[in-house]
Design brief:
Helices cover 77% and strands 0% of the residues. It has 549 residues and is mainly α. The longest helix has 17 residues. 38% of the residues are buried.
Length: 549
């Protein structure tokens, strides 16, 4: 940096650089903007206290050790400067040296007894180091020397409540109310203390008093709403929430947070659906162009059984490329639920056109095409290969290789097995790959020991997966270890929530091999009822009847 010639000695150069650093910093939102200037100052004069002080401030919330180092050196260079002492005391807190911090804050209180911030910081320090009584004493001292300061008094009440000195906290607030009877905030604080000790009627009276004084005050409405919610007075809670939602002074983010809390409370939502509908409608009308509101309203329509109306809302959201892609995902999911395959594929194409490098979309399209066109179709293979190409992480790439392997393995086992190996190269703990590969090795007469090792690993990775357990049971059965197979398949059936007929068929086969003809027949017929191919079941029953008693 070029310095004017007339700054021809170190002292003048340091002063010039320091002034430039302050100037640059004052015109920038970045607290680090002046840092290079202050560092140049210290290169000239390592004891320059103002530069150390400025650097300590610049490093706040970035590097606690540097905050402390520069604050310490600033204070060491000029111990009479109260700003330097304050920064040094704070820096001791940031590095966890609470003993020294306390000593320096006590020094600050002696040297600068009229500064309320010193009392608050000292009290916070004592409270955070398990000395709340000392913190209260410091705040009492502040009131004695400086008079009543609401910020300090509020913190003292917090500490009193923490120490369960509720009577004193209530007495203080009652004194505040006596002196300033229109103080709505004091009534709110009093209500919060009453709520915390279970005096609900007194709490409500305090909140109501605050509401009388300030009917449209968001803080008052929110406090009363919280009280009703905590005391499970849902009708009153929702009525107050309606007033909050209608209030233009309440930020949308706060309204959405309250709404989301209501939705998560399933019983509250279900029992008060029409009241919640009013809240959703208010947001929908007041914020017509907001995506977050529109999405919540559309989801609310789904919960109300208005699928088509909700779908139209999501389609409008999905039509705008500026909206999050989850709108398109939701349209695809809803069309899938409604069984509209052509529409599903159409919106998948729209989504892929907008997000061509989203591997999950290509995988989704591949599975949808597989459902419509069947295995060994080039379009299906093309979608899975595209997913492999664009996958950005190893887990997704592994899943894409697995999808392609599943499609090709029956027609080309060698190719399918190579693809399974690729999938495991990218994610060795892909339980789906381990399970499917093990199953096909077993079905195709391969190495059963290898298949069992892979299947066992899949079960270890996903212990409650019924499909994995069925595969392991089937491999054990093929190895002739029917007693073990029986134990595993029973666990698979107990965990299955889908009524999968294959599990029942395999159990019946294992029972037949164990000589339990009566139970085997029962499970063959249960497999048939669950949807197993009738020809397969009839053949098994014939074989069962031909067994020797």
């Amino acid at each position: 940096m070029e310095i004017p010639e007339h700054f021809n000695n170190d002292s003048l150069r340091a002063a010039y650089l320091y002034t430039e650093g302050v100037r640059v910093g004052s015109f920038s939102e970045d607290p680090m903007a002046g840092l290079p200037y202050f560092q140049m100052v210290l290169a000239i004069d390592s004891t320059h206290a103002p530069a150390h002080y400025r650097l300590s401030q610049a490093y706040l919330f970035r590097n606690a050790q540097k905050v402390h180092d520069h604050a310490r050196r600033a204070y060491a260079a000029d111990s009479t400067n109260l700003d330097y002492l304050d920064q040094y005391a704070y820096s001791l807190v940031t590095i966890g040296d609470y003993a020294k911090a306390k000593a320096n804050y006590e020094k600050l209180l002696r040297l600068d007894p009229k500064n309320p911030a010193n009392y608050r910081t000292a009290a916070i320090l004592y409270a955070s180091t398990n000395m709340p009584h000392m913190a209260i004493s410091i705040l009492d001292s502040a009131e004695h020397k400086l008079g009543y300061i609401e910020e300090l008094a509020r913190y003292r009440r917090e500490l009193l409540v923490r120490l369960r000195q509720h009577d004193r906290a209530i007495g203080e607030l009652q004194s505040v109310i006596a002196n300033t009877p229109r103080n709505a905030e004091a009534h709110i604080s009093l209500g919060e203390i009453y709520t915390s000790i279970g005096k609900d009627s007194l709490a409500e009276a305090s909140y109501r008093k605050a509401l009388e004084m300030s009917p449209n005050n968001p803080q008052v409405l929110a406090a009363l709403g919280d009280h009703y919610y905590r005391t499970e007075r849902n009708a009153e809670f929702l009525a107050v929430t309606k007033e909050l939602f209608l209030n233009d002074d309440v930020e949308l983010s706060r309204k959405l947070s309250i709404y989301d809390g209501i939705v998560k409370n399933e019983e509250l939502y279900r029992r008060n659906f029409f009241a919640v509908n009013t809240l959703a409608s208010i947001l929908h009308v007041k914020y017509p162009g907001d995506y977050e509101v529109a999405e919540r309203y559309a989801l609310h329509l789904v919960r109300g059984g208005k699928l088509e109306q909700s779908l139209e809302s999501f389609k409008k959201l999905a039509a705008d490329p500026a909206n999050p892609k989850r709108a398109l995902y939701t349209v695809i999911d809803m069309e899938k639920y409604l069984g509209r395959k052509d529409s599903v594929l159409h919106y998948l194409d729209v989504a892929i056109e907008r997000h061509p490098k989203d591997a999950d979309l290509h995988l989704r399209k591949g599975y949808e095409l597989l459902d419509s066109l069947g295995i060994n179709h080039r379009a299906v293979e093309g979608s899975f290969r595209k997913a492999i190409e664009v996958a950005a992480d190893s887990v997704t790439k592994s899943n894409a290789y697995a999808a392609l392997a599943d499609q090709l393995v029956e027609s080309n086992p060698n190719k399918g097995f190579r693809l399974y190996r690729k999938a495991l190269d990218f994610n060795p703990d892909n339980s789906l790959v381990l399970n499917n590969w093990a199953y096909f090795i077993c079905e195709m007469g391969g190495d059963l020991d290898k298949a069992l090792a892979m299947s066992s690993r899949a079960c270890e990775l996903d212990t409650a997966n019924a499909n994995n357990l069925d595969t392991k049971a089937w491999i054990l059965f093929k190895m002739g270890r029917t007693a073990e197979a029986k134990s595993v398949i029973k666990l698979a059936i107990s965990l299955d929530t889908t009524g999968e007929p294959t599990f029942l068929l395999h159990y019946a086969d294992i029972l037949a091999a164990e000589g339990e003809k009566f139970m085997a027949e029962i499970y063959y017929r249960r497999a048939l009822e669950a949807g197993e191919d009738a020809t397969v079941v009839e053949r098994r029953l014939q074989q069962l009847n031909q067994q020797q008693p």
